[in-house]
């Protein structure tokens, strides 16, 4: 099954590269006007209109091959999955519990190169939150 997936993927990549090349070789809509007055591809291998038909038909064939390969890859990609039963929450990862830390450990002890504990922050340095949200002119910050 893995070999078939690799083959279909290789065919899809080659058809995509072929389509890119053929699309870049094709003339735009305005190129027909220049060929009507004698310039352009009138003396080419395919003639004035032969290259347009050949390139557009080859592009259509490669687009069909690309589309079929895409459908095949979607089918083969789904074949590797097994249907899961149950909820997504049943498969959720259980958070790992950390061992109990000693009482003296804090953020300052986790910094490498420091051995002394940081001074404790006072509760007066933390501003108290307002009891009710401000409304009206109280929402406008002052300078």
From TrEMBL:
<dbReference type="GO" id="GO:0015450">
    <property type="term" value="F:protein-transporting ATPase activity"/>
</dbReference>
<dbReference type="GO" id="GO:0005886">
    <property type="term" value="C:plasma membrane"/>
</dbReference>
<dbReference type="GO" id="GO:0065002">
    <property type="term" value="P:intracellular protein transmembrane transport"/>
</dbReference>
<dbReference type="Pfam" id="PF03840">
    <property type="entry name" value="SecG"/>
</dbReference>
<feature type="transmembrane region" description="Helical">
    <location>
        <begin position="54"/>
        <end position="76"/>
    </location>
</feature>
<feature type="region of interest" description="Disordered">
    <location>
        <begin position="98"/>
        <end position="122"/>
    </location>
</feature>
<dbReference type="GO" id="GO:0043952">
    <property type="term" value="P:protein transport by the Sec complex"/>
</dbReference>
<keyword id="KW-0813">Transport</keyword>
<keyword id="KW-0811">Translocation</keyword>
<keyword id="KW-1003">Cell membrane</keyword>
<comment type="similarity">
    <text>Belongs to the SecG family.</text>
</comment>
<keyword id="KW-0653">Protein transport</keyword>
<keyword id="KW-0472">Membrane</keyword>
<protein>
    <recommendedName>
        <fullName>Protein-export membrane protein SecG</fullName>
    </recommendedName>
</protein>
<keyword id="KW-1133">Transmembrane helix</keyword>
<feature type="compositionally biased region" description="Low complexity">
    <location>
        <begin position="98"/>
        <end position="108"/>
    </location>
</feature>
<keyword id="KW-0812">Transmembrane</keyword>
<dbReference type="InterPro" id="IPR004692">
    <property type="entry name" value="SecG"/>
</dbReference>
<comment type="function">
    <text>Involved in protein export. Participates in an early event of protein translocation.</text>
</comment>
<dbReference type="GO" id="GO:0009306">
    <property type="term" value="P:protein secretion"/>
</dbReference>
């Amino acid at each position: 099954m893995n070999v078939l997936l690799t083959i279909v993927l290789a065919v899809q990549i080659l058809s995509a590269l072929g389509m890119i090349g053929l699309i870049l070789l094709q003339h735009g809509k305005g190129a027909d006007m220049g060929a009507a007055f004698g310039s352009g591809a009138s003396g080419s291998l395919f003639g004035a209109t032969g290259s347009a038909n050949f390139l557009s038909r080859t592009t259509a064939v490669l687009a069909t091959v690309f589309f079929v390969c895409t459908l095949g890859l979607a089918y083969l990609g789904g074949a590797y999955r097994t249907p899961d039963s149950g909820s997504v929450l049943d498969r959720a990862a259980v958070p790992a519990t950390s061992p109990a830390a000693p009482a003296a450990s804090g953020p300052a002890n986790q910094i490498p190169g420091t051995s002394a504990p940081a001074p404790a922050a006072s509760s007066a340095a933390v501003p108290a939150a307002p009891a009710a949200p401000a409304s009206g002119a109280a929402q406008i910050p002052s300078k």
